[in-house]
Amino acid sequence: MTDQNSAQPAAGRRPEPLPLTVLTGFLGSGKTTLLNRILTDPAMSDTVVIVNEFGEIGLDHMLVETVDEGMILLSAGCLCCSVRGDLIHTLEDLLRKRDNDRIMPFKRVIIETTGLADPAPILHAVLYHPYLSMRFAVQGLVTVVDAMAGAATLDTHEEAVRQAAMADRLVLSKTDLSDSGAVAALTARLRQLNPGAAILDAGDALDLESMVMSGLFDTQGKIGDVATWLSAEAIAEAEDAAHRRQHEHDHGHGHGHGHDEHHDHHHHDVNRHDASIRAFCLTSDAPVPQRSLDLFLDLLRASHGAKLLRVKGIVCIAEDPDHPVVLHGVQHVVHVPAILDAWPDDADRRTRLVFIVKDLDRAEVEALWQAFLGQPGIDRPDAQALADNPLRVAWGG
Ligand SMILES: Nc1nc2c(ncn2[C@@H]2O[C@H](COP(=O)(O)OP(=O)(O)OP(=O)(O)O)[C@@H](O)[C@H]2O)c(=O)[nH]1
């Protein structure tokens, strides 16, 4: 078990959390190339990079031009499975050295994963570690997608789909080697897969600092732009567009429209990997009682935990509607990283929950949500029945 006190700062006061970003992307997509750019940008000086590789002998560290030799740490194995403990120890060790002035006071950490990594357990490991989650402000996930090989990789490798679907920022590399039609098609596919993430072109003069700082907190550990972080509007719009496409598609079939039209709709169909992962947004105009929210989240993670890749939200709590609660979850755990002093937009106090899920129907989550909002429908469970269910305790435990 991890010793929570092992990396406590020397001084008594709690230090500002340090930004931590996970950089991922499929094999050969251009992660190291982007990292080199980040490390040579003056705005990104004092960055510690943890490079993770398969195998005993890493190659990437030879390719990364470091600002300071001591700033590169390597671990053998895959971060998402075998060496999660190593990652935690590495981060604790880094903090200890920084707190004891044994290394320079770095300002942020970037973890570069292997090309095959599943980012969910990596984010999870840091977000839910009782001490690390206090010391690091997790910025989220930047995923590099190779514009040349990206579509074929998404077709054949589910890891690549998960990396793209969970990202806060998507960076298209090798656009200089790809034709514009292929880039546009890949961009459209990524937008459908992950409507909430900004899509950037590595060939552009990127603002690397804001690319890396894609999370809820800014460099001082202060709450940043919640609406951008949540991306609820973009996800809701994408859902509407998908609905319209589906409706037109069904309408086309029902009324025997021409073959060409069908052909065009089928052209937009997502492939089997993409189709198993989806993003959606649930909203409520009515404030949500704290207990209903707790029960909803409990039951959701207990019954669907492994299918929840990410959950983000802003919630109007009935007991304290002036101070919205921000939620952030990865897999089995959803936690409250912040309670805001005020609503980002006082005119819009709706509760918004954004989900990125795998093999889970929107309807199932929505039925549960409505049950806890006190709006049970036909064939839907009601909250009291769910709360009284004797199995609930067993599931939650
Ligand atoms: N033309 C071009 N080449 C690029 C671009 N980005 C990366 N490359 C090249 O693609 C190859 C792979 O890039 P890396 O940065 O090593 O990719 P990686 O994701 O770190 O690779 P792994 O660590 O093996 O998974 C290298 O030869 C890079 O020079 C780009 O935007 N344009």
From TrEMBL:
<dbReference type="GO" id="GO:0000166">
    <property type="term" value="F:nucleotide binding"/>
</dbReference>
<feature type="domain" description="CobW C-terminal">
    <location>
        <begin position="277"/>
        <end position="373"/>
    </location>
</feature>
<dbReference type="GO" id="GO:0016787">
    <property type="term" value="F:hydrolase activity"/>
</dbReference>
<keyword id="KW-0378">Hydrolase</keyword>
<keyword id="KW-0547">Nucleotide-binding</keyword>
<feature type="region of interest" description="Disordered">
    <location>
        <begin position="240"/>
        <end position="270"/>
    </location>
</feature>
<dbReference type="Pfam" id="PF02492">
    <property type="entry name" value="cobW"/>
</dbReference>
<dbReference type="InterPro" id="IPR027417">
    <property type="entry name" value="P-loop_NTPase"/>
</dbReference>
<comment type="similarity">
    <text>Belongs to the SIMIBI class G3E GTPase family. ZNG1 subfamily.</text>
</comment>
<comment type="function">
    <text>Zinc chaperone that directly transfers zinc cofactor to target proteins, thereby activating them. Zinc is transferred from the CXCC motif in the GTPase domain to the zinc binding site in target proteins in a process requiring GTP hydrolysis.</text>
</comment>
<protein>
    <submittedName>
        <fullName>GTPase, G3E family</fullName>
    </submittedName>
</protein>
<keyword id="KW-0143">Chaperone</keyword>
<dbReference type="InterPro" id="IPR011629">
    <property type="entry name" value="CobW-like_C"/>
</dbReference>
<dbReference type="InterPro" id="IPR036627">
    <property type="entry name" value="CobW-likC_sf"/>
</dbReference>
<dbReference type="Pfam" id="PF07683">
    <property type="entry name" value="CobW_C"/>
</dbReference>
<dbReference type="InterPro" id="IPR051316">
    <property type="entry name" value="Zinc-reg_GTPase_activator"/>
</dbReference>
<feature type="compositionally biased region" description="Basic and acidic residues">
    <location>
        <begin position="240"/>
        <end position="263"/>
    </location>
</feature>
<dbReference type="GO" id="GO:0005737">
    <property type="term" value="C:cytoplasm"/>
</dbReference>
<dbReference type="InterPro" id="IPR003495">
    <property type="entry name" value="CobW/HypB/UreG_nucleotide-bd"/>
</dbReference>
